[in-house]
Amino acid sequence: MINVSKKCIGCNKCVPVCPFAAIQLIDRKAVINEACTLCGACVQVCPVQAIEIAREEASTRDLTGHKGVWVFVELMQTQAGDKHPHKIRPVTFELLSIGRRLADELGEELSAILLTDKNAGFEKELGSYGADKVYLVENPELYEYNTDIFSTAIIALAHRHKPAIMLYGATIMGRDLAPRVASSLYTGLTADCTALAIKDGLLLQSRPAFGGNIMADILSPNSRPQMATVRPNVMKLAEPIYGKVALTVREDIKIDKSLRRVKVLERELSRETGGAKIEEARIIVSGGRGMKTKAGFKQLEELCRLLGGVVGASRGAVDMGLKEKSHQVGQSGTTVSPKLYLAFGISGAVQHIVGMKSSDVIVAVNKDPNAPIFNVAKYGVVGDAHEIAPKLIEALKKK
Ligand SMILES: Cc1cc2nc3c(=O)[nH]c(=O)nc-3n(C[C@H](O)[C@H](O)[C@H](O)COP(=O)(O)OP(=O)(O)OC[C@H]3O[C@@H](n4cnc5c(N)ncnc54)[C@H](O)[C@@H]3O)c2cc1C
């Protein structure tokens, strides 16, 4: 709630600072319209303290009745010719896997939130990864993602059922949707969590902070739901229990198509430059600044081809122009979780480690025996990458 008091002197200082053009000067008095988002920019510049925002005290809110862990189900388009036009994005199963552990610890239910134009029996898969319940909203307006439509549906569901925790993938969709839901529910959101746990009944949200130099543990004691996003490949996938089907609860939510402020006029498919995507690779051969030259990287590419993997790179290597940014592994690159991760000439800075530490087997080659990469490696080779890579290539070729 924002108010302009009689103290207003019509000085016009607040009008140009409003990022949403929500203030007009009428009869030498600031008048605020519905475009206002309560950002407070005007409050800061008012010389006579005439503008006041009355915010609800978070600590006075009634949190009783909030129960259960929710996971937003992200759907993605399937290939042309597939039976169904949509399938569940794998990060959803990773979120259900961690969500199951959180729900068990709290002794509460794990629910999946499925918004779709047509359900294709998704509850079977969602159940096998641990969901007790699927809240299903089926509506033709949900045929594709739209911020206004999807957030309206989720906010309505959250008001109706009061979850304690809501988890989203830190994908393009999740990163768009979660902040909008959080601000409408007047709650917080921790983005890109690398670990989630329960502490004294609260969601303990851990994520790198200050450029990855420290890990921040975040609790939200005064607001509900507690909301977090998690990047794909960060949480370990649980073994599915086939045959366990979640209970489907159909929800009737009024969705008005006039809510849709953005209309998709045209779609253009971006063409991949070929090869598998790094986030889905089972084997990654990664190089760092220690590879020194493009020719050094060529060795890794050859090794990669023989192993049937994808080439990765540290930011150091990307900054040197040895590999394109799309191959960068780490905090400001892609988080990966392959079966095998080979690291050549990578020191193991924390920003790199957070992006690959959940790989099943890590093998590191570095000439410095004290390189931090060895702290996360299952197998470590102290030596020159330029000598070891050709030996591996030779051995694989012989095989
Ligand atoms: C906000 C922020 C985000 C970041 N995001 C990322 C990210 O997403 N990914 C990322 O990787 N980094 C990221 N970084 C950068 C990170 O801090 C490191 O600077 C970077 O990872 C270093 O890359 P490197 O290991 O290749 O290079 P270096 O740290 O220079 O290490 C090179 C290593 O190669 C070894 N070496 C040298 N020659 C040889 C040889 N002949 N044989 C074997 N070993 C050899 C050396 O002993 C050394 O350990 C980020 C930093 C910040 C501040």
Number of strands: 21
- Note the total helix count: 10
Reading off the top of the CATH hierarchy, the class of the largest domain is best stated as: Alpha Beta
CATH fold-level topology of the largest domain: Rossmann fold
- The coarse overall form would be globular
Strand content: 15-25%
Strand order of the largest sheet: 11-15-10-5-8-9-16
Give a quick account of the main beta sheet: strands, pairing sense, barrel closure: 7 strands, parallel
CATH architecture of the largest domain: 3-Layer(aba) Sandwich
Domain unit count:
3
Descriptive overview:
- The structure is a single chain.
- The protein is an alpha/beta fold and 399 residues long.
- It folds into 3 domains: 2-55, Alpha-Beta Plaits (2-Layer Sandwich), CATH 3.30.70.20; 69-256, Rossmann fold (3-Layer(aba) Sandwich); 278-398, Rossmann fold.
- It contains 10 helices and 21 strands.
- The strands form 6 sheets. It has a 7-stranded parallel β-sheet with strand order 11-15-10-5-8-9-16, with helices on both faces. A 5-stranded parallel β-sheet has the order 18-17-19-20-21. Strands 12-13-14 form a 3-stranded antiparallel β-sheet.
- It is globular, with a radius of gyration of 25 Å.
- Bound molecules: flavin-adenine dinucleotide.
